[in-house]
Amino acid sequence: MDAKIDWHSEAARLILRNKAFIEGKFVDAASGKTFECISPVDGSVLAHVAACDSEDVDRAVKAARGAFEKGVWADQAPKTRKRVLVKFADLIQKNANELALLETLDMGKPIINARQGDLRAVAECVRWYGEAIDKLYDEIAPTPKSALALITREPLGVVGAVVPWNFPLLMAAWKFAPALAAGNSVVLKPAEQSPLSALRIAEIAAEAGIPPGVFNVVPGFGETAGQALGRHMDVDAITFTGSTEVGKLFLKYSGESNMKVVSLECGGKTPNIVFADTPDLDAAARGTADGIFYNSGQVCDAASRLLVEDKIHDAFLSKVAALAKNYAPADPLDEKTQMGAMVDSTQTKRVMNYIAKGQEEGASLMLGGKQVRQETGGFYIEPTIFDAVDNRMTIACEEIFGPVLSTIRFKTAEDAVKLANDSRYGLEANLWTNDLSKAHRIARALRAGTVTVNTRDGGGIEVPFGGYKQSGFGRDKSLHALHKYTQLKTTYINVG
To answer: Please, where are the H alpha helices in 95-167?
Structure first.
């Protein structure tokens, strides 16, 4: 990335797409209604975006179904889809600065994270699935000589993807890249807080050669556009990332409509377990701080519960608190900024209410806890650390989705595992120790979809990601994600 970019000047020159993208072109909502897209950077209105409703979702689904039935994408050879998706990835890279700027303006994350983190990962994701799709083989079952049983994977048809605002393009790419690679048509519903990058990437997809109707974007609210997609009788699958409460609604919508396939990546309350025998406590402290303050804590697997062995509690927490100062909220368009804004005023109030609740329930506020930079018009909260937290307190049980760390002491490995698993969530767990046997033993005991050992990095696109318990089911990333967007067909031939 060019370090000399003046991101404020670039922002002033941006052309914002604010209409739905259906059947290869931008269109107004059928009702003509729009909603304000507000930047959390300074509280300004970025654009008035088409407020799609059931009629618009129906138009998008019909376009997607028509394209699927015509086979303009689904019937293309895997190598053909590969070429288009690789070109799509190239164009994402070419337009990465613009897309990153849209992400920052729309949801408040630091531009350095959007450009060097998110956009690189988005392009990698699209390219990875494009490269993978012509290297997957079907199966032949072991049958008597009198028969031939072919087991093939086929695209589901129309996939509805509903994604959150914390990583608008990356979460979308985790859905649409494997769905498109498998031959499906996609209707993407971005979060109403952050629709702008999704609308731009739909245009880029068309430029890459994705046929009209195959990739559609319907901005709007969850209770209107999201519900309409979840209840639609001609949608074959819904893939959702977001809160557990909304995830349960999509299960309900499926049961009340056509029993569409549902995959969910929902809430998390990641335990970050630090043992006294950790080989590098400074590295563990850096991982702890980054694990909760990165993206202002608006991360589904944010390491929001710090479980620290009693004998190193004071010294380790001091290290984390010292590092927290590096995450003081600042201008998201400054490349030196490490922590930006909360996504909107609603989320800001929600997090501040949790901070107040923690104090009311007896937790010790060690650091932060205040809303700052209010003179900018934006939405910013200090890095916040609570100590003396009981695992039954609200701040230890519920997903806050903000820069709030809850610290809990433990004495034995058994206590740590019990505390870690005492949650309705099971998305991720982090573990720091120098004892390899203990690491294996505890990793097996932890009820989480991902367990990291001596790192906060859970791997790239090549490893699956998803949860246990009320963190959902189904996996994003890796070849396993393709299972969500395909179905098995057995063709049994009598050749005797």
So the answer is: 96-107, 111-113, 119-132
Which of 300, 382, 399, 428 is catalytic? The answer is 300
Q: What's the rounded Cα separation, in Å, for the pair 14 and 377?
A: 21
Is residue 266 flagged as an active site residue? no
Please write the tens of the pLDDT for every residue from 232-273.
999 999 999 999 999 999 999 999 999 999 999 999 999 999
pLDDT digits (tens, 9 = 90+) for 333-380: 999 999 999 999 999 999 999 999 999 999 999 999 999 999 999 999
Strand partners, 273: 307, 431
Q: Are 86 and 132 in contact (CB under 8 A)?
A: no
Q: Where are the domains of the chain?
A: 7-266+472-490, 271-460
Q: Which residue has the tokens 């190598």?
A: 79
pTM of the model: 0.97
Classify 357 as helix, strand or coil: helix
Q: What is the topology classification, in CATH, of domain 7-266+472-490? A: Aldehyde Dehydrogenase; Chain A, domain 1 (3.40.605)
**Is residue 4 scored above 90 in pLDDT?**
no
Spot the catalytic one: 103, 265, 382, 428.
Answer: 265
Specify the CATH superfamily of domain 271-460: Aldehyde Dehydrogenase; Chain A, domain 2 (3.40.309.10)
Residue 377's region, left for phi above 0, alpha for psi from -120 to 50, else beta, is left
265 annotated active-site: yes
